[in-house]
Each structure stands twice: as structure tokens, then as C-alpha cells.
Amino acid sequence: MAPERSCAFAPGRVNLIGEHTDYNGGLALPFAIAQGVTVRAETTRGDSGLAETIEAHARDLEESDEFTLAEPGPADGWRAFVRGVVAELGRAGYPLCGARLEISGDVPQGSGLSSSAALEVALCLALAELGSESSEGREDGRHVALDRRDIARLCARVENEWVGAHTGLLDQLASLFGAPDTALRIDFATLEIEPVPLVLDGWRLVILDSGERHAHASSGYNERRDECARACALLGVDSLSEGSAHAVAQLPEPLRLRAEHVLGENRRVREAVAALRTEDLATIGVLLDASHESLRDLFEISTQAVEAAVARLRCAGAAGARMVGGGFGGSILGLFAPDVPPPPDTLEVRPGPGAHLLET
User: Fold this and answer.
1) Predicted pLDDT of residue 143
2) Where in the chain is the domain with CATH 3.30.230.10?
3) What are the residue numbers of the active site?
4) How far is CA 193 from CA 13, 180, 330, in A?
5) Is 3.90.1800.10 the CATH number for 199-349?
6) Does 5-182 carry CATH code 3.30.230.10?
7) 66 and 58 in contact (C-beta within 8 Å)?
């Protein structure tokens, strides 16, 4: 018998190094955080059996939505994520049933901590668990196993086709594969994921909200993706990470700047992995600063509010600081040595477990 209830938690993420490299076939080094999104699901029934309607309630926003499994239809905001996940799960052949969803979370929206990926992943796990072992959905009654890379691809389709943000797989993979005290070296050319110990030993990673919200679909994020695609076409490669420094230097502006950022950021990921393996946190601070300068000067995704937040962390004694996420607002990541207290309004983040089911 299918379970009548399910509950799933998916974390947000912080990307230590490797920004705008995922959709360019490069390297990134994210980690899952304690903050995330929880989805509680319960089957609903009608007069003739399981219902064919999804009722979704976003508790933090005090908003609701209702739609049929057969025709989710388009929507805006958080509703687009819910409808997109339901539609993509159905399209992929996972058995679904009518359900009531309760959504809550503690990841600030638009802050660059990937609240959207956390929502998508939690929805996928909760709905798939609710539909597992369903006699209505499968004649053999077997549990439906979800491959986590497939979940990441499904969630990316939701972002791309239902929300209108052309994101890569970084956020979803970090949420799905995160582990305590661990960063993930992800090679987006192969989707190989290598755990890397992230031993802070008194050092602190903190997040400072710039106060400026971003929305991928309406910001310059999609424009940057288009520029990277144009650079690839001129270079004759499938991804910018395949380009040589010599060839990239011949690109017209601003495509040269975008490609140089990607090549430099890939190099910084490799250097960060080496530093973490020797517990050299001071070098991580230097790399954070270098990453921010590249995002600001080469990828051109900073704002006055972001720069003010970075300056504030550095003035407070941060060993390094950079913007995280898609840019054009959001949060700043700062690294503080054990004897340097961070500002009181920052949020300390530590690598935590990846997405998982909870007891109902």
C-alpha cells in the first residue's frame, strides 16, 4: 500500500567557489546548509477513490493554490514551482495521486541561498514517496526509486520551462548530495561529484544579506547565459570550459570578459579543493576575494548594495568575502578567522546533510 503521508526536507546551499560555471561545463564547490524547505504531503480522496487534485499551502506566505493532476497549468511565483514539479514527475512516469501539500521553510527567498532548488527537491521527494508502492499507480506494487541526478535534471526543467530561469544543476545537486562537514566538487562536464572535507576548526563562514533581492527570470542572469552561449558559438566549443586562454582572448567584448571569468573560476575551484585538503582556510579567504573581483569586473553582476555588503564584511575583519548565487543582489559569503567575530546580523552557515525524508 502507498503511504498516506510523507514529509521531505531539502536544504539550501552555499557555493564556496565556482559561480556561473555549472552551465558552462566547469567546476563548482558548493555545500548544503542547515536552512531549507520542508514539504508535508497527505493523500486526499474523493467519492470514487484517490482525488485528482493538488492543494498546496505556502504557510510562510499564507497563500494557497489548487490545480488538477491532469492540467497543472501555468502560474507565477512559488505556484509555478509546485505545478512544474507535479507536471514533470507525471511526464517522467512517476505515479501521482491527489494530495494536500504544506510548505514551510527558513531559507530567505532571493538571497542567493537557493530557496527555489530546496523547494523543488523537497516537493519531488515528498510527492514521489506519497506515490510509491501505489497499487493505483503500479501493478507490480514496487517502490519507485528516484535517481538523485535525475531529480536534479527534473528540477532544472522546472526552473527552465515553468519558471523561466535558465539555471544549471548546481543548486539541485548540492541540495541532493550534501553531507555534514563536506563540500562537493562537482564537474559539470561529467556530473561527477567528489566529496571534499570542509573542516572549519574554529573558522566561521557567514552570510550577510545585501538587502537587494534578485529573481533569476527577471534579472540579468539569463542575459549572461546567452552571452556565454554566443561565446561558445564563436569558439566552436560545446562549453566555455573547453575554450583555451588564447582563443578566449580573441573574443569580442563583453564575451571575452565572461569567458575569462569562467576559466579563472575553474582554476580557483581546483585551488580551493587543494587548500581544503590541507585545511588551509587562509587561502580560501584569498580565493573568495579573487572570485568576487572576477564576478564584479569580468562577469559584471554586482550592484551597489552588494559592494556595500562586501565592504562591510571586509571592514569587520573577514579573511575573504564574495557574492553568492546568480548575482544582481542576494547574499554575501564571508570567512572569519577563529579570533575575529563576525558582525552580529550575519548568519553562520555550516555544511549539513542533503535532502532526505522525515518521519511523519
Assistant:
1) 43
2) 5-182
3) 171
4) 15, 15, 26
5) no
6) yes
7) no
